[in-house]
Amino acid sequence: MQIHGRDDDIKLLRSKLRDLAEKKDVGDEEYVAKSRAGEMVLVSGTSGTGKSALIHKGLGNPAAKSGYIFASGKFEDKFHRPLSAFSDAMTRLAKFITVDHNKMGKLSSGGQSIATLIRNKIQNEFEVEDAKQLRRVLPGCAELLGLGSRRRSKFSSFLCPSSHAAKEALFRSAPQLGSAKRRLQVSLALAGKESIAKMHYAVRRLLKIICSHLKGVVLFIDDLQWSDTATLDLLKSIVLDGEIPSLLIVGAYREDEVPE
Question: 216: which strand partners?
């Protein structure tokens, strides 16, 4: 798709990549971690106005050229799976790290691959139950979590149904599950606040480990107007964390399908 008259928007998106690079070059390690806190950018427009194409041109292509990882997920209108788009984006991120990154020969000092360093860090910092919890929420990250050969435990949902109020709140505040080859049916039982908080914390810890080993990560979540409360709450938790380095979250939604 040709994009016309969006030069300012493209420049703004690309400036976010430069921000990641500039913050990466700051000296003090502790300051760097805090100064590279996660950020979320939302792109709105009506259907067919080229939101996704704009994001891919403004961020996807230059991210790849700059050595960043660009991973995307998309919500579907008539097939609602809680966390589906976020899970798909994380699956693509994990695949890039475990497959594509290694094929490119990008090894760290000492000869260990980035995937090995990340996997070792996860196994050292996560308790078994915490890792299993992540496996349930992000099944596509199993290999990166080091759980590929373990028996899958029965799924226990942390998720809650979609909410127009939650969507509206997220859209105003910012400047499901399945493997790659099959879909999982999940219950939408309301989970307790403590369980949801634990899940959020586990995902944030995982992202912190991943992003700490990479130059930069861009997660693109498309069609947020069809998202669920679980996704919106998780995204808010990630953005407000303040300690996940080199992470940019970008969302796109149809403004005419969001409650006013």
Answer: none
Instruction: Please report the sign of the dihedral spanned by the C-alpha atoms of residue 7, residue 10, residue 15, residue 21.
Output: negative
Per-residue pLDDT tens, the chain, 260 aa: give them. 445 457 788 888 888 888 876 655 544 454 444 444 568 999 998 888 889 999 988 898 888 888 899 999 999 987 778 899 999 999 999 999 998 766 555 544 456 889 999 999 999 999 988 888 899 999 999 999 986 444 343 333 444 444 455 555 555 555 433 333 333 334 334 457 888 899 999 999 999 999 999 989 999 999 999 999 999 999 999 999 989 989 999 999 999 887 66
Helix, strand, or coil here: 228?
Answer: coil
CB 221 within 8 A of CB 251: yes
Rg (CA), the chain: 18
Q: What global pTM score does this model have? A: 0.77
